[in-house]
Amino acid sequence: MYLSRFYYTLIVLNIIKHTSSDCGCQLNRKSECTKEDSSHKYKQEFNKKHSDNNVFNAFNKQNMVLIEGATFEMGTNKPVFKSDFEGPARNVTLKSFYLDMYEVSNQNFKDFIDKSGYVTEAETFGDSFMFDLFIPEEEKEQYKDFRAIQAPWWVKVNGVDWKHPEGLKSSIAERLNHPVVHVSWNDATEFCKFQGKRLPTEAEWEMACRGGLKQKLYPWGNKLNAKDRHWANIWQGEFPNHNTREDGFVSTAPVDQYFPNKFNLYNMAGNVWEWTQDSWLNNDDEKVKKGGSYMCHESYCWRYRCAARSQNTKDSTAGNLGFRCAGDAL
């Protein structure tokens, strides 16, 4: 059931609740939060039993990678954000699974909408959160009361949705190969189900991110610009006022941009946050997201590391939040 508009507005004006380095990553339509040891929730048996998202239909494996079952070391003993429960490092064993090589693109999502007639939650609510940088200077004053208090660069704007990522005057026509954004966990789940797929578990996602490397920061290793290259779409410059766009992009990048990791997966770090099927701690209404986004920078939101994690409520939408799908290897 959707929140009343009055209640929703109250939440927006009192939103953001989190860590000593609060970047707005956990921007939610709702704001309750509980904490507990959740290590058991990384086990595949738990996720198989409790997921809202399990499907077992046949699916098209084109542009998917088969990741062979194995035991890998998940998490870290050197957490950057302890309140995100990034640690401890522990061995997790997974069965084989498939994962999309790319984040779901605007074209992929448009095809789904055209075939299914699905209406996203941002469209239903009539608004979504977008980055202040993309609001025309002459319009910013009118949104002064619609900013997240502890992350004022996030603004709730009417008419923002997956088709209009920066408002009604914007379009995805020139960005069909960019990742779809302003999709909630519920929207992502519906897309995956339509394809006969599902969202990856957090453990699956992290195993895929690491690409067979053990306890490296990033999908490609420990050095951010290894071999003097850009390997991910993140923030360069001083956040949130100046982005030098050294990696080529201020906002999203194409889903096949940069070099893939050793599992041939693209953009597992940066670009857009990716939903997983796991619940955050003991709250089934909050879901784990992984990977960071084009807005992440080490100085304030170093969450484009494989071990990093964050969360949003299932109905949350924003201009840096997308997904990719997984499937069981039967």
Q: Can you give keywords for this protein?
A:
330 residues; alpha+beta; paralog of FGE (formylglycine-generating enzyme); four-stranded mixed beta sheet; globular
Please characterize this protein's 3D structure:
- The protein contains six helices and 14 strands.
- With 330 residues, it is an alpha+beta fold.
- The chain has a single domain, classed as Alpha-Beta Complex (paralog of FGE (formylglycine-generating enzyme)).
- Strands 12-11-10-13 form a four-stranded mixed β-sheet. A three-stranded antiparallel β-sheet has the order 1-4-14, covered by helices on one side.
- Strand 6 and strand 7 form a beta hairpin.
- The longest helix is centred in the middle third of the chain and has 11 residues.
- The chain is globular.
Short description:
The chain is about 15% helix and about 20% strand.
Put simply, the count of helices is 6
- List low-pLDDT spans: 1-20, 31-51
CATH class category? Alpha Beta
Stated plainly, the CATH topology is called paralog of FGE (formylglycine-generating enzyme)
Secondary structure topology:
Blueprint: H1 5-13, H2 44-50, E1 64-67, E2 70-74, E3 90-94, E4 97-100, H3 106-116, H4 121-125, E5 127-131, E6 147-148, E7 151-158, H5 185-194, H6 202-210, E8 237-238, E9 242-243, E10 273-280, E11 283-290, E12 310-313, E13 321-322, E14 326-328
Parallel strand pairs: 10-13
Antiparallel strand pairs: 1-4, 2-3, 4-14, 5-7, 6-7, 8-9, 10-11, 11-12
